[in-house]
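Schema walkthrough. Field components (list of strings):
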Amino acid sequence: MNEFELIRRYFDRPAKNAVLGVGDDAAIVRPTPGHDLHVSVDMLVEGRHFFADVDPAALGHKTLAVNLSDMAAMGAAPRWVVLAVALPHSDEAWVARFADGFFALADRFDVGVIGGDTTRGPLTLSVTVFGEAPSGRALRRNAAQEGDDVWVSGTLGLGAMALREKLAGDLKLPADALAAGLARLERPEPRVALGQGLLGLAHAAVDVSDGWFADFGHILERSNKGAELWFDALPTHPWLAERRARYPELIAAGGDDYELAFTAPAANRAAIEALGLQLGVAVSRVGRVRSPEAGVSLIDSAGRPVALQRAGYDHFA
Amino acid sequence: MNEFELIRRYFDRPAKNAVLGVGDDAAIVRPTPGHDLHVSVDMLVEGRHFFADVDPAALGHKTLAVNLSDMAAMGAAPRWVVLAVALPHSDEAWVARFADGFFALADRFDVGVIGGDTTRGPLTLSVTVFGEAPSGRALRRNAAQEGDDVWVSGTLGLGAMALREKLAGDLKLPADALAAGLARLERPEPRVALGQGLLGLAHAAVDVSDGWFADFGHILERSNKGAELWFDALPTHPWLAERRARYPELIAAGGDDYELAFTAPAANRAAIEALGLQLGVAVSRVGRVRSPEAGVSLIDSAGRPVALQRAGYDHFA
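Field assembly_structure (string):
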């Protein structure tokens, strides 16, 4: 089966939300009046972002999920996605399973797969997603205000602890913790509904993908603010929570969380907690934004500073 | 210099046409009311789409040019682009030159570079481009009509003849032909103004990138039409024109042309010629669309069929 047949069989489905889908020089969509378009791109490379033996269906899920997570962080509704894939060989079974995982998630969030490119090369995936939000209302990184609460959704460190067991071998996780960690690593759940629900409630938001401390730091940097951050309040898996002091990096700087970190005025505290309950997504208050002069400090519940060996993930480190 | 610094230094420029550019979870743009959005993605891999020793500035140009060519084929005005790059190592000089070539072309067509992702991996480039055209007016592949003239812009086969000299070594091009061929290979000029000018004049259009015969075939297939195609009318370089019968594949199936192939009613013949003159782009009439029952034939000026060893480029062949 050649390139065109492969694409046609697995990706040339009737595109949702589109005037014209895969199969022309470009796809055509009709933007919603009064909305801004939000665009994000991610590239995933074998051996760096995933292992060669990963289940292709899980990879299809994750490839899209990390991009939906970016839309969530803007408060945008994901609407369309295009996918470019370099494949080492024309492996129909692999493509079929990858497409299964990718389309299942796209369908669940009503995202139209409107374009693609397939070529031969080292296994590389590039996804561009675009979403819509009412004009001018997106959650930007630069909008944190002094006095804001600092929040994070869900739990941190699960993917990182599973990866650590897999790679370093110096962690021995119980079965339930390993399962929870692998699920996060392979099938992260983008916080799409939470992001949209936070429009009007939160000031600034960011997607936690490279480690919470570094990613939240982007908000502080872009907003020119400092913060007091409460390490012991960071939500994580019970197994890791018991070993919090021993593995602070897994929780605060592990990466692969795909949660939302955001800031919001204290006046919206109850509304944010109600939103989390309504959506079934935990929301935890983990600090307070302060002046840039006060700087950034990560402290435990006794007020002592918590040191991190590394703050986040650098793709060239 | 790490990933974030590399991106920031070379790609985090104030984005044109954007509410918010590089540096958040997503870029934000405001679509033009009354227009459809056209989206296309391409992935280029070292060793397949370009050589390892390519001038990075030329590669930056070409990476964007092939995508602008897709917008041209729709008759859309290119507006925004996002770029994902996997790099084998953090090579500042390479990135700087690549960005030079990429941004120079983006600036020339007033295209905003609104997002990017950089990671480590085998050299791979993925570009997603967004363009706009008045709603419902794009040039689609499926719109060819029986009796339409078949047109092609510019010249065909130049990139292919240079590539053949470089790879196979059985061609010895004179200096001017080699220079013209390398220019096409490395710095193709997308027919953006022509594509937009054809709105309302042409019925169907396609970008010629994988070989004219195969790419034009996509129009016939999607439109369910046949065609009589005139090999001797295909425009090419004078050196190749003199050897037309010996190298039919270079002209008709060579690839890397980045011209527009389109069909239009005979009534618009004079208007299309005037448009070509106005824009300084040659336009050649090279056939006629006919019924699907009549099939597709490629003939020379004596009416004899011209055989092609291969019809186009298959990325998995």
